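Note to self: the last two entries modelled the partners one at a time, which told us nothing about the interface. This time every component goes in together.
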Amino acid sequence: MSSVPLALPLADARAPSPSQAFPDAARAALGDTQLRHNIGHATKTIRAKRAQVVGELPDWEELREAGRAIKERTLRHLDTHLLELEASIGRAGGVVHWARDAEEANRVVGDLIAAHGAREVVKAKSITTEETQLNEYLAERGIHAWETDLAQLIIQLGDDSPSHILVPAIHRNRAEIRELFLRTLGDDAPADLSDDPRALAEVARRHLRRRFLSAKVGISGVNFAVAETGTVSVVESEGNGRMCTTLPEVLISVMGIEKVIPTWRDLEVYLQTLPRSSTAERMNPYTSLWTGVAPGDGPREFHLVIVDNGRSRVLADTVGRQALNCIRCSACLNVCPVYERTGGHAYGSVYPGPIGAILTPLLEGFERAGSLPYASSLCGACYEVCPVKINIPEVLVHLRHGVVDHAARTGGARARLAPERVAMKAMATVFSSRRRYESAQRAARIGQWPLTRGGTITRLPGELSGWTAMRDLRPVPRESFREWWRRRSGPGGEGA
Amino acid sequence: MSDARTEVLARVRQALSDVPSDEKPEDVFVERGYRTQWEQASRSEVVDRFCEVLADYNARVHRVVSSELADRVGRLCREHHLRRLVVPPGLPAPWRPEGVELVEDRGLAISELDGMDGVLSGCAGAIAQTGTLVLDGGPRSGRRAISLVPDHHLCVVEAEQVVALVPEAVAGASGAVRERRAPITLVSGPSATSDIELSRVEGVHGPRELDVVLVEPGP
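The predicted structure of the combined assembly is written out below.
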């Protein structure tokens, strides 16, 4: 059913992209025991907390279903909702800008900052601007963007990249953060700084406070934008989001086209499911909701930049479209057995974990991210926790199909004869007929004997060795269920 | 070459070619099977729940009857050495404590707010289920900056302002948003971060101390 434009590489994407295929990056990450310890500890803690606060709500499943349905309604009529949002914000005294890609989004933001003569801006966490690499772009124009979310600050100071949607510095432990602060923050970090998270947070407060109080321009992302009222919201914990969206004279918020929701009432669903799914709290400390410009209260100018950057491509894939439901809670990362072991960097994208494994190839094409749909064991835990019911395993399988087809179309005879493709084709032929299936079983029983050791096949030959490099294989049994059934019930007893 | 707006909208429309042209947004069914009211709970259970959940965030909750309010606020100020508080202009006179300098916000500069020991405000509502204060920029909540820059927030909540569930509060704020584009801030405990090893630390950029005084109509 899908019209699959996935295979097209995104010519205009400047976003960070997997420079290394997932299996290679994952192998390197697995060797880093500190990283595995940090991530294992953190994800285990948050899984338990999430389960507890989700369990408190007797209507959790109803909230998930409503969250999914609202997104479906939004996406199927995205043009209508975006136009309504633009009109509402205009009425409320804000200005809407549109951007086709990352480069255009950055230029719009840069021009606005330059028009106000600002050389520095304070910035609340925004994954969309990570995707567009806004900070790097602004630096080229001589504008410094202060990241004010604690984890983003840690990333920025360490010249590092985020490894988790919610807690981007999850791969760093307290001792490493203390070292980093001592090395980079000068007088704001006292020499006797301890590695107590409380003391570390205090250093960040001191370091950023004067910037908040004097910044002329603030930049934020967007969690939800209400088409009906023109209300934009930022959901956060530290208060840096409030600082960035309240104190500067000019506020610029950047959102992907999929962040719009139709009505004010729809907030009642996501304000319940997002905090419980992300930080495992009943409610996050601060949610700011502003509607254009409020006279005498907050910024005097508000700009909203609506960015496509590959999202319309995702929208065109009728199976993959649901990836745009994502509200960036990160619950799927915390439950994923693959993420828990490899961490976020192995995904080579600003969107790591299960959601990244589908979103990145959909946004960027298989040329750049073709190994990501395989970065999963299809266990389904991600789907189960997703507060907007994205069927990640379904999309993964759909994308794997797309990867193989894409390779066949673009890779010539070699790709057409790739063992996986040939094997899948052969399997389809065999599985489609009982006669062929049974004779294949008999052939396998004969063929496997030289490989079986102690009732297990530990190494397959040649092209098939990849399968057994990481796992053992049970041999085909001496007698199949069908054969046993036939023998047991005698001739004519086979029934249907 | 078309402009960005035209092109983005065209791409979106093309991507949605599978959607029948006569389908309307409201044709996509949204089943709201979740709770919008907490029917079994009594008023006192709702208020108790609010206080419990808020205390869970390490906010301090003080329950008083209305005749005790100003005295209790005064005592809190002395305990925490708060000598100068900013207040929104609409803060009711009977809430104002003796012996503390109260500075009404008539557009104070950010640097002046930074010099305050704290802020004393009311709110527009509160949510029991999540321990949340709803601020709406109105005469009792004040401008957003006054409850943000000072390091200590004292907030007065009247018992009848507490609703049980999130949907009730969202519906409650709707009028202010539509009629006067009110900026809404939901506050659930003091500012916090879990960015270091996912262990929660209270007190980052927003107020590090939150005292909520819950007032019930007194004798």
